[in-house]
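Homework help board

Subject: predicted structure for assignment chain

Our instructor gave us this sequence and asked us to write out the predicted structure in token form, then describe one feature. I got the tokens but I'm not sure how to describe them. Can anyone check?
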Amino acid sequence: MSVKNNYRKTALVLLMAGTIGLAGCATTPGYENTQRGAAIGTLGGGIAGAVIGNQSGNPRTGAAIGAAVGALAGAGYGRYLDNQQRELENRLASERAANEVAVQRVNQGRALNVRLNSTTFFRFGTAELVGDGQRVLNDVADVLNQYPESRVNITGYTDSVGTESYNQQLSQQRAQAVMNYLGSRGVDTSRMSAMGMGESNPIATNSTEAGRQLNRRVEILIQPTTA
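My token output:
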């Protein structure tokens, strides 16, 4: 009977903690991702704390402590991404307005994706970076250096024109070119990886030039490793 009561008390603590965290996300504009991270951290920390507390005979206290610690860690994680996103959006405002760059939150808000239109960044059919592309990557490098606690995965894509093997090679070369350039601007190469995906994962139709232009892109995925 006491075991059942302990589990019920633990569940109540987790429910209350999660409700508070999620309520905060819904009521404070401008800090949605920070508070979403806090809510996720609250639940995750509470579950871990309950497990540890149950082993020591006090699951309710363990859940409460774990929820509090998890909330702080989750809020820090979300804030770290919020700050990077704000900085990138401010620096790349004109390029975003011209649809040359897109900055989006992905993976349920846990990562940041910077999408580069290859027409702006590369000469046609090559992996040679053009001047405007280098200028944009300078800004991206500055932000990455400002927030060093993150992994950076760079992925190249093409449209469906040409052979699959050619597109695969070109997408890999372009991803590598972006990685090399960021490295030349001081971004630690041990944080980065480069991969080509060829014509896979299109984000628009390949039956029109406008759609093909969107599919020719390089994406920079930024995922914090700590808060």
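Reply (TA_rk): Your tokens look well-formed. For the description, you could write something like this. The domain at 95-224 is CATH 3.30.1330.60 (60s Ribosomal Protein L30; Chain: A;). That's the kind of observation they're looking for.
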